Amino acid sequence: MKPLLLVWLMAVSSGVGHARQIVDVHSHNIFPFYREVIERHGAEMEEGFPLPAWEVDSHRAFMDSAGIGCTILSMPAPQPWFGDRDECRRGVRQYNDSCARLKAASPERFRFCASLPLPDVDAAIAEAVYALDTLGADGVKLATNSRGQYLGDEALDPLMEVLNRRKAVIVVHPHKPVPVNEQLMARLPLAAYEYPAETTRALMNMLTRNLLVRYPDVKVVVPHGGSFLPLAIPRLKALVPVLQARGLMGEVNIEANLSRLYYDLAGVTSPAVIRTLLTITSPDHIMYGSDYPYQSAELLTRNLRRLEAALAVDKELSAYADDFLWRNAARLFFLPVDSQSVASLANQLPTVVTDTDSGMLVRISEIEIYPQYLDAYLAAALEVGATSVREEPGVIAIYPMIQQRDSCQVRILEIYASGEAYRHHLTTPHFKTYKQGTLHMVKSLDLVDMIPMNPSAMSEIFLKMKPEK
To answer: Membrane spanning segments where (predicted)?
Structure first.
């Protein structure tokens, strides 16, 4: 077994190496009063699956066993709206107040996205203002549809204006579609197909209304590995000009809308799914999610270990493992980063972890390109390298080269002033364009971190390369 994989598996199997660093952005809490409302209206099986048991100590135990430091809680389905507006308002307010108390008691472990009493838009606006401004909610949770009122509906525009002014994070969760074939649903649980389809349906409705361009300061988290969006987006791009030519669709900037979308990995344990997701987003917009308590703590922990192990040995994705597992979520939700946890992880893996936060980061990217994409890839690599060096102070060099004996073998020397400069580079528009546009061109990728033997000579080397005047 390779030393890197052996050390990693030793760390993840014990749970100690995580230092409780992982952030779970997709997790639910089910308070007794919520369950009572659902049962009073006979809606226990409305979503085709019974509400699981939940209590805070069991959730803490799951987090401890899985190495999860912080979880973002949200209300599950179904929406507690059964025609009585006051009942829904009271239930939602009680939920948000209870979550706020939980956060106040353990802010380092529990955060929450507030529920809103939709489809009552006026009440939802009032609750959003209260939850975000008074309770300190970390975002809001919106159902794909609230009793038939879908995301992207014009009736929700006043709510979007309020959320946009507060630069709110919106976590989306699928609910039972309206309408739905009850006979079909009885044979095939919603979670198996309709939930991904429902999420895709709601997000496509938002995109075609140019919603996230019109409200550019909100950020939307799409559940379950992006659902079917990686398949739907290319089709939408092909259809938009056809529909616009016939006057059936207004102005839509698909790429600008996509830039506001983030994605959780609830239910995803395969790097193949992540690669598919990377055809429509960039590595800094992907985050871990568990979907606790809808599966057992033991199964979720095993799935998380499987995901970590797969990322650790994946030549292309291993560089982004920390981003997926905690760093992206910490940035999005403004979570404090525990430096002691980072130091603990570094001590666990002294032979494979490089301190990228201080000092220069030097790397050689060893890339093999499919022959049919070679010219397009080289043009993209040269463009992103030149733009990065020109516009980013922390990028010292990005220098693509090809082997004389095999032009499909590309080597890129990358030098960054620090790990922070490298992470900033991953968030830039020019890198995202390069990454999304070339992912399908790359046959293999190996990121080889290097140790400069004489760092002090760097300034002399690069000065000497400047042309004489």
So the answer is: none
